[in-house]
Amino acid sequence: MAVPVEEAIAALSTFSLEDEQPEVQGPAVMVSAERAATESPIEYSDVAAYRLSLSEDTKALNQLNTLIQEGKEMASILYSYRSCVKALPQLPESMKHSQADLYLETYQVLDLEMSRLREIQRWQSSASAKLAADMQRFSRPERRINGPTVTHLWSMLKLLDVLVQLDHLKNAKASIPNDFSWYKRTFTQVSAQWQDTDTMREELDDLQIFLSTRWAILLNLHVEMFRVNNVEDILQVLIVFIVESLELDFALLFPERHILLRVLPVLVVLATTSEKDTEALYKRVKLIRLINIFKNDPVIPAFPDLYLSPAAILKELSVYFQKFSSQTRLLTLPAPHELPPREALEYQRQYLIVNHIGSLRAEHDDFTIRFASSMNQLLLLRSNDGADTEWCREVKGNMYDMVVEGFQLLSRWTARIWEQCAWKFSRPWKDAAESQETSGSYSDYEKVVRFNYSAEERKALVELVSYIKSVGLMLQRCDTLVADALWETIHAEVQDFVQNTLATMLRTTFRKKKDLSRILSDMRTLSADWMANTKPENELQSSQHGGDDSRSNFFYPRAVAPTASQVHCLQFLIYEVVSGGNLRRPGGLFGNNGSEIHVNDLKQLETFFYKLSFFLHILDYTATIGTLTDLGFLWFREFYLESSRVIQFPIECSLPWMLIDHILDSQNSGLLESVLLPFDIYNDSAQQALVVLKQRFLYDEIEAEVDHGFDIFVSRLSETIFTYYKSWAASELLDPSFLFALDNAERCSIQPVRFTALFKMTKVQLLGRTINLRSLIAQRMNKLFRENLEFLFDRFESQDLCAIVELEKLIDVLKHAHELLSQELSIDSFSLMLNEMQENISLVSFSSRLATQIWSEMQSDFLPNFILCNTTQRFVRSSKVPPTQKPSVPSAKPSFYCGTQDLNAAHQSFARLHSGFFGIPHVFAVVKLLGSRSLPWLIRALLDHISDKITTLEPMISGLQEALPKSIGLLSFDGGVTGCMRLIREQLNWGTKAELKSEVLRGIKEIGSVIYLMGLLDTVLREVDTKRFMQTAPWLGLIPGADGQIVNAQDGDSPLINLFKSASSAIVSNPSCPNPSAFYTMSKQAEAADLLYKANMNGGSVLEYTLAFTSAALDKYCSKWSAPPKTGFIDITTSKDFYRIYGGLQIGYLEEITNPQSAHHDVLGDSIAWGGCTIVYLLGQELHFELFDFSYQVLNVAEVEALSASHAHRSAQFVQGWEALLEAMKKARRLNNHVFSMLKARCPLEDKTACAIKQSGAPLHRVRFDNTVSAFETLPQKGTVS
Amino acid sequence: MAKAGGITNAVNVGIAVQADWENREFISHISLNVRRLFEFLVQFEATTRSKLGTLNEKLDLLERRLEMLEVQVGTATANPSLFST
Q1: I want to staple A272 with a disulfide (CB 3.0 to 4.6 A). Which of A278, A640, A922, B11 is the partner?
Q2: Cα–Cα distance between A709 and A764 in angstroms, integer?
Q3: Which positions in chain A touch B17 (Cβ < 8 Å)?
Q4: What's the half-sphere exposure (Cβ side, CA atoms, 13 Å) at A117?
Q5: Nearest CA in chain B to A557
Q6: What is the residue-averaged pLDDT of chain A?
């Protein structure tokens, strides 16, 4: 050879062809234009070359094969026939005049369909005639021609099968006669104007008879056969052949087995048409053998949704074939629906896959292991050049055995599915007890399919389908690898038989029998490959005609298989030897009785005979795998469609979809990887619709269902994945100590599921399309995460501010789920999605959806309705304020919270702890959720709120100032508490401005709330800052110094810069460094990072800033609220400063809250003190307040009174009735002191402004000292950023 | 049985059969290798496709990120006044 092909091909294997695609789909449907070897690709035209005088037989054989082909197409037409009549339009009244036109149109449409039926009628009569003629010709005892060969017998059986199927189909399809009667009616209407319609009418009548007669084809065939009365012999031979093949069940793949099973009852009926013949038949085949076969398979699959039952056929045919009706033993066989319950149960056990799944699993596992190991051996052999021939043959023989076993397994498994289907069709679902009346509303198809498979059965079916597909894939993968090994083994088998076994036979048993030995030597002539054993020179055999050689021949392996014709001729000759060419010879094919051949030889011949027929299947490697793994029939339902009178069944009725559905529903992690396999069923069905049935509309229907189904599948799968990852994340985030304390902690843990294989599927084969499942899932995930965020925000928006902790937790869970999923799948980054859903993408806007919501919530609900408890540092909702109306909380699937119900409950129990108040945890959540981007925005908004409040308070306070009496003196100690209170009440009745009182109080309370909130925020931010500082300080070389100052630990650059500098200099100094500039860039970037982090280091205090801000805001009203005394000294009686107003308000409010009937109880809380005292303090009136506050004065009076009372009478009568008020006053004083001391610590105002008295005695008001760095100077002007 | 005539010219047929075996050896050899070549091509296509798929996925992600950044930059450049301090 010019080109070393072998090496060239071997070189290809150096390419790396790994793409990490898991094999979770079946083999792809292959387009093959090759005709399979089982039906000789050249139509046996080479048989003539062997000079066996088989030309007649070959001709007849080819004729039958053509008929079979045609017949199959007819059957496809009939099977996929759908009634046209249903689609015909009805004319409305207004158009009755054009009725004639409609008739004509209808006629033309129907005529097309009817012409097909007419063709079928014509074809069947000619086919029957030809089959009958063929049988007669080859069964004459005095025939002059060779034949029939075994292949010929097979062809007869197959044609007979086609005819039986066609007949069965014609009987089953009710729409055909229906359409026909319409056709006939329109014909009578239309043909009224035509002339010469007699022939057409006759034809029509013929067709009508054909269509309306049951078993018309068989009856016709019967008539044709028995025109001349000599076909009984061949019928008997056929029956014997069938029975023996079935009983041996060695070389039959399931399609052949089913053909034999279908034909047998018909053949028996045909063969028992006379007493004599019947006896002859039973002499050759015992009746019990037939009955056993019939009993063994009470239902036989015929079409995807049609089954045949031998018992029923026999019974039905006995009506038409009178002679047969005496065969009572055959006729008493029960049909599937008549089976007694016990037997039916027995069959059920046999037919249902679920009862065998254990052993099937074991078979599968065992086979795959052994197959892989022999595959490895073969690969080892190939890589090993000078291998020992003996070992070589052993390995290849082993491979051959494995392939044979694989085919048989596949055949058995697929047959199981076919038979289970047939069984299910024969026994529709009955659930009478549960739903008597509703079951009537289910269609028949639902009864036989949808409800007829229990969950266990579906699971078993999925498993078996995946076994079939995966073994099929495995076999198909190694097609070209094993091909030559298989050919070599087959070659060796044939040569061994013809060169060695036959030689031995010729020398021994056949020596005397001239005729037989001649046939045997013919077998050698036509198949022996003598030259093959001459190749290895050292082992050259002396004799080329090694027949007489006593030692067995050694022949050199040759990777060539025998042709179909050689196999055909060999089988013919073997058959010739054992039967003596006599059809009448009693006994079976290889039955021993009356034969002149030795038992051992007969056994050898028989084995070889059946091996030969299997060789062809092996040679058709891919085609055989294709047939054996074809599960397309599971989709088809033409027969039920017609009987249910619907256009198509919903997808829930479709068996492939039911399997997918079951896998998704069951949440069984073991099944999940097989979820793509049921889609292979659709692939197969589509292939069948196009190639076998050749119907475009069927393909379209399948395509529509697949499109629909795949969409549902992807969305449900994504949801399953999402839920799984959510629950995983949620269970990981649960507190361990909580789990430890929990009784049913296992409910909060999740079963691991592997989606890895599905995540890797970038090419799902679906109806010839390649679909990237991975990207589809990623798309859906992106969408689901966004939807979930959206939902969480919606949910938060419909709750109050306290729900922020829950929101944070849920977002945490989501984020963790995202993290886990990102390891498998590339999806958008979480921060990106979060920003997107927060509408926070713009670089120039700092508010976000969440920040806006928090702010508006604060403004409208939190500040007015929540009251502060200073001790617990919490804000709680005031019990007096009616809760605001909110849109109802949206609910969603559990997967949008934490995954499963149990996890939701667990997380909910945490969230509930924080749902009743607002405190430190909430501020933490706010800080975390808003981040450094939106938090300043919120702070600014709150500060503005303070200044707004002050502005709105100003006129009201002026009002109150006006309402104050001209002068209020110090309270006198004379009247005691009671006197004081009376005096106060008199003086502080506010006159007409009393209604302003509560307004002002509320305003002050809000200001206080904001300030306290800022205090909380300050605490939290400080903690966060400290944490960040701890993390970055070592890198920046910083250490905390005294007074919260941060100092550099060492001079010069920070450790971060030093590290990068030294690293890059070390690398650059190395001469082998390819690209030093990159390292310079890196060290520059380190400097930049250093700067950035240092700039962020000192955040300052939010609270101090707030106080400064408030103070600045108050500056404007200083003149009004803190009027400088005219005299220059403290103005006691006429002062209308703020502290006085506040003091008045405070005592009024204290009185009110101590009054049990008061409605104001619990409205203001402690923040009133925060607000009031802060303003007082910032106005520099703290000391004034402490001196002149009314309640303080009352307390002083009470103290003196109590003291004097204890001195005098030891009776506290005077203060009686005032304890509650006094207590409240004391409490208020304590609180005020607390606030003042805090303010002094955080905002030391004394340093800044004070009142001084000059040496001359003139006072100086509000003297400013700029001895501390005040925040005033750094205050941004409001309005720069809006 | 006589009618099963047997091979009339056994020697010639034997020679022809022998030649046939040899011819067919050549044919099967060639056809098998063509099939192997074909199978390689199919596999090559499949591998390439999935590698391209992986690449495409990465590009997709980058593209989306780029789009996002472009939008962000767009919002910034639409308000130049904010940056002119």
Answers
A1: A278
A2: 14
A3: 50, 525-529
A4: 30
A5: B25
A6: 83
Using CA atoms, how far apart are residues A549 and A931, in angstroms rounded to an integer? Answer: 97
Burial code (b: 16+ CB inside 10 Å, e: under 16) for A838-847 equals bebbbbeebb
Q: Is B81 on the interface with A (CB under 8 A)?
A: no
Length of chain B: 85
DSSP A749: S
Record: contact B40-A15, CB cut-off 8 A: yes
Say whether pLDDT at A440 is over 60.
no
Residues A509-534: b if buried by 16+ CB within 10 A, e if exposed? bbeeeebbbbbbbbbbbbbbbbebbe
Mean pLDDT computed over A761-772: 88
Touching A: B residues 16-45, CB under 8 Å: 16-18, 21-22, 24-25, 28-30, 32-33, 35-37, 39-40, 43-44
Q: DSSP string covering A223-288, please?
A: HHHTTSS--HHHHHHHHHHHHHHHHH-SS--HHHHHHHHHHHHHHHHHHTSSHHHHHHHHHHS-HH
Which DSSP string do the residues of A1194-1211 spell out, in sequence order?
HHHHHHHHHHHHHHHTS-
C-alpha A436 chain-centroid distance = 36
Give the number of other Cβ atoms within 10 Å of residue A1263's Cβ.
11
Residue A303 has phi, psi (to 5 degrees) of -125, 165
Helix segments in A251-388, DSSP class H? 254-271, 275-284, 287-296, 310-320, 328-331, 341-351, 357-383
Q: Under a CB-based contact definition with an 8 Å cutoff, are residues A601 and A383 in contact? A: no
Q: Give me A629's structure tokens.
A: 């793994």
CB contact under 8 A, A12 and B37: yes
Chain B environment of A529 (Cβ under 8 Å): 17-18, 21
- Residue A849, judged by CB atoms within 10 A of its CB (0-12, 13-18, 19+), counts as middle
Q: What are A274's two structure tokens?
A: 């006379």
Interhelix angle A389-426/A621-628, nearest 10 degrees:
30
Collapsed DSSP state (helix, strand, coil) of residue A1256 = coil
DSSP label at residue A801: G
Residue A876 is inside which H or E element, if any?
A: strand A874-877
User: Distance (Å) from the C-alpha of residue B10 to the closest C-alpha of chain A?
Assistant: 7
Task: Read off the amino acid at residue A520.
Answer: L
Q: Tell me A1255's DSSP state.
A: T
Q: Which residues in chain A are closer than 8 Å to B21, comparing Cβ atoms?
A: 529, 531-532, 558, 560
Backbone torsion region of residue A594, taken as left when φ is above 0, otherwise alpha when ψ lies between -120 and 50, otherwise beta: left
| Residue of A1133, A1136, A1234 lying closest to A1179 (CA atoms) | A1136
The pLDDT of residue A462? 93
Q: What is the pLDDT of residues A940-997, one digit of tens each?
A: 999 999 999 999 999 898 888 888 887 887 888 877 888 888 888 888 877 777 778 8
Residues of A in contact with B65 (CB under 8 A): 829, 832
Q: What is the DSSP string of A1013-1054?
A: HHHHHHHHHHHHHHHHHHHHHHHHTEEE-GGG-EEESSSSS-
Phi, psi (deg, nearest 5) at residue A866: -100, 145
What strands lie across the sheet with A874-877, from one edge to the other? A866-869, A874-877, A917-918
For residues A131 and A221, the answer to whether their CB atoms sit within 8 Å is yes
Max Cα–Cα distance, chain B, nearest Å? 117
Contact partners, residue A1144, CB within 8 Å, separation at least 6: A960, A964, A988, A990, A1190
Nearest Cα to Cα of residue A412 among A258, A296, A545, A262: A258
- Chain B residues in contact with A53 (beta carbon < 8 A): 5
